[in-house]
Amino acid sequence: MTIQSLDLKIPLIREKINLLEQQKIGIPTPNCAYCGSSGHVDMTKDEYNTGREKLAQGSSFSEAFPFLSPDLLEMLISGTHSWCKHTHIS
Fold this sequence. Notes:
Blueprint lengths: L2 H20 L1 E5 L11 E5 H12 L4 H4 L5 H9 L3 H8 L1
Antiparallel strand pairs: 1-2
């Protein structure tokens, strides 16, 4: 392999690394109080790690994960599925 061929591959390798870093992972949640099933909230590893750091520094969940909707924040914190909550409240 020549240096020239390596120079051509470096941008492709960087692009693949960027795509991997942007992939969503499923963060497991506690079991829902209504149906008993667990769930997951999708976010990137960077979003998750940044959020964990902010929580460790005393931030609230909504400050640590500002990109999540209130329903997803509730699911992450307590496991409660919004569809279960709305079904059982009415």
